[in-house]
Design a protein that fits this description.
- The protein is α/β, with parallel strands linked by helices and 375 residues long.
- The chain has a domain of 206 residues: 3-Layer(aba) Sandwich (Rossmann fold), CATH 3.40.50.1820.
- The chain has 14 helices and eight strands.
- Strands 1-2-4-3-5-6-7-8 form an eight-stranded mixed beta sheet, with helices on both faces.
- A hairpin with a 5-residue loop joins strand 1 and strand 2.
- The two termini are 24 Å apart.
- The C terminus is likely disordered.
């Protein structure tokens, strides 16, 4: 996801609304205590508002979505390597599946951490050596001491992960910002393509500043300099306050609305929606803001034509964070690419349509032939 430029204003509004509602409840209770508001209805309404601020999710979540059979959970591996980087960051790298399996390195998007790959790890680790890592500053990977959250920094981190993946050429699978990291690596380390990197899988991602390929792009491009960037710097400055606001919006259930709108299409389960919302609340707002600012500088348009390895481009049919037109452009520019559309699916189609997603990955590697859209 889930912390992307297109939904940043929505996240801000949800957080402010959460604080406003909580503040209203506290104000009503205070005025009742002081005798300015007289009567039991004021006491009850104040208590209800405060209670909803901390437990509204238990009401709203069951109303929003049905429960599923296989709900995502926090699944970590016991096979772990911790890699120290020159900038002070430490990478958490986890391994699943047989050691002699085809290695596939999964880079998650901006906001969650590597536990977002719950379904992929379960469904692909029987035949692949699944390698996941937490981007520095998220999950169990510590952030850089120099506050460098650029795509180039993350591409260098990914190159370090590739170096411990074994002797076989790897598949690089990246979702959202993870796909952007893959493209940046192709520019910085072109000698790895075909030798250490066998193929790419780019999932719900883009080749340029995501502002240009998201919903309402024309408006957001005009707002980037005068509004979005100042708000992001303010988020960095007031990170603890915004983290408190984020958790309030998770507890009262309002965060589900922004996650639903930006990531899903309505076929997700209750557990999937809750898991995605919880993951988005875990990340430090200051870290997320720095990474979003870095994405504004991202542009690998010229890199696409130089990627001479097989590429599978996967997109959700209704993705509004990186619209399908971005996938179409990449397929047109890449020398050896094919596309699959997950339907119905949004930016989090890898979770919402997890079976389709895993089947596409398996078919791409097993056959190497063109894959038509799955039903």
């Amino acid at each position: 996801m889930l912390f992307m430029p297109h939904n940043f204003l929505i996240v801000w509004l949800v957080q402010l609304l959460s604080m406003g509602i909580f503040g209203t409840g506290i104000y009503i209770l205070y005025e009742w205590y002081e005798g300015e508001l007289v009567g039991t209805p004021y006491l009850v309404s104040g208590l209800v508002i405060v209670l909803w601020s901390f437990a509204g999710r238990f009401i709203s979540l069951p109303l929003l979505r049905r429960s599923g059979v296989d709900e995502p959970k926090f699944m970590r591996s016991k096979t772990v390597k911790r890699l120290s980087q020159p900038d002070g960051s430490v990478l958490q790298v986890e391994f699943f599946g047989p050691e002699d399996g085809q290695p596939i390195i999964m880079s998650h998007g901006w906001g969650p951490n590597s536990t977002v790959w719950y379904y992929a790890k379960r469904q692909l680790s029987d035949r692949f050596r699944v390698i996941v890592w937490d981007l520095p500053g998220l999950g169990k990977s510590s952030g850089p001491k120099n506050n460098d959250y650029s795509l180039e920094k993350y591409a260098r981190d990914l190159e370090t992960v590739i170096s411990i993946a074994g002797d076989k050429p790897v598949i690089l699978l990246g979702h959202s910002m993870g796909g952007m990291i893959n493209l940046t690596l192709c520019r910085l380390f072109p000698h790895l393509l075909g030798r250490r990197v066998a193929s790419l899988i780019l999932v719900d991602t883009t080749y340029t500043n995501p502002i240009k390929t998201c919903i309402f792009s024309n408006v957001l491009r005009k707002l980037q300099k005068p509004l979005l960037e100042p708000l992001l710097y303010l988020t960095i400055l007031l990170s603890p306050i915004f983290w408190l606001m984020t958790w309030l919006s998770y507890l009262n259930g309002l965060l589900y609305i922004s996650v639903e709108l930006s990531g899903f299409t309505g076929t997700e389960t209750r557990g999937q929606l809750n898991f995605a919302a919880f993951l988005s609340a875990l990340g430090s707002p200051g870290v997320l803001a720095r990474g979003t600012l870095a994405m504004f500088k991202f542009d690998e348009t010229q890199t696409l034509a130089n990627i001479n390895i097989p590429v599978l481009v996967v997109c959700g049919a209704a993705d509004i964070a990186t619209k399908p037109i971005a996938s179409d452009r990449m397929v047109a520019e890449l020398p050896d690419a094919q596309k699959i559309t997950l339907q119905p699916g949004g930016h989090m189609a890898l979770m919402e349509q997890n079976r389709q997603f895993s089947q596409a990955v398996e078919a791409f590697w097993a056959t190497g032939s063109e894959i038509s859209n799955l039903p």
